[in-house]
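Hey, can you fold this?
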Amino acid sequence: VIHWYKQKEGEAPERLLFFSGGKVTVESGFQANRYMAERISDQKRCVLTIKDVIPDDAATYYCAYWDHHLIGYYNKVFGSGTKLVVSDKGSSPPANSEILQKKHENQIMYICLIEKFYPEVIRVAWTDDEKEVTDNVVKGDTWKSTKEDEYSIASWLTVSAENKDKKYYCKYEHEAEEASLPTQGIFTLDRTKTAPQEEDCRTVFNRGNFMYQLMHRTAYLVYIILLLKSCMYYLIILFFIYR
């Protein structure tokens, strides 16, 4: 049985329909003739189709199913979700994309900056010549540019300085464009130098924006580590007290 959920921004998810035995059952409150679900067994896919899309359809849609565990209970597993944006404005690819580099002691940070695209839904991943890289990767949230309906995003990868000659790629998938940026011939961040004159204040601000996000995330991780350390000391003290 495959379930489909609809979640509007800021609201709880609600079940839209479920698909069982080749039959679709639409929940009350939804127009049954607008929704169709189809299961493609050989590809392990279930496709949801919405007819005559209206602005109220803008939401994130999740598929889900009940997974049976050996010890006798069920757990509902959800997909990662598909965001539907309903707008009169057509999609536009990123106006600019580049990889920046910052060296710090024995590490190198590659920062992938993707600017001015619409809609805001985009997938960003780091790869090497063989596979996707997931370790030491941080993906920032999209932010809105000063111009209406333009979004930007940054993602950064930290590697050991020993891998300075290894090539990595920042790959992004947007409905208007897909591209892969290599970590060669990139711009190096140097705080001792002033920004090039051709860069306007907006570009400098955007770069500062994701650096601020990085600092915020780092501070959060340090806080968690200190909190765990304090809890450990607390348990040790309790052990000796009760002993």
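Oh, and this one too while you're at it.
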Amino acid sequence: AQVLFCTLNTPQVDMEKLLGGQIGLEDFIFAHTRGRTKLVQVLKSEEALGLTITDNGAGYAFIKRIREGSVMARTPQVGVGDVLEALDGRSLVGARHFEVARLLQELPRGQHFQLSLTEPRRAWDVLPPRSGGRAGVPSLGSGRGTLRLRSRGPATVQEQPSAFEERAIAKVDDLLESYMGIRDSEL
């Protein structure tokens, strides 16, 4: 529920790099999670708001592009990657991008409306420095984890053993192999 969308090979919120098709062995997947929620009042002063909207297929429609010089480009609180959560109090969660676009297009020109948006958290905002965490920022682990994506159920981070634990595992494996003929690091 925390992952909004994923990008391929960039930690930046780059809508041209959305994860969608084939993934190669050399590719990296970056998960963009929920950041702060914003309530934005907008006046629809033109017929078009200047938004390109897409969705992740899992219930979140978000802003893919903002046309330069448009109504939304002049609204500084709105940014690329923002998830459209609600329009005038009506939830947009679960709506496809074309449904959200239609609702925005149907708003009469000259009308004020309120958008509830959630911006993606920036990776550099949550990562503590290598030497240790900042005051008030929770530790994100050792940095030796693997993100496990599952077809059913939530994604989890599986921590990898420390260098000390790896040496201990290797010694136990050596003992098991010499006495019992068994070598299994998962044992």
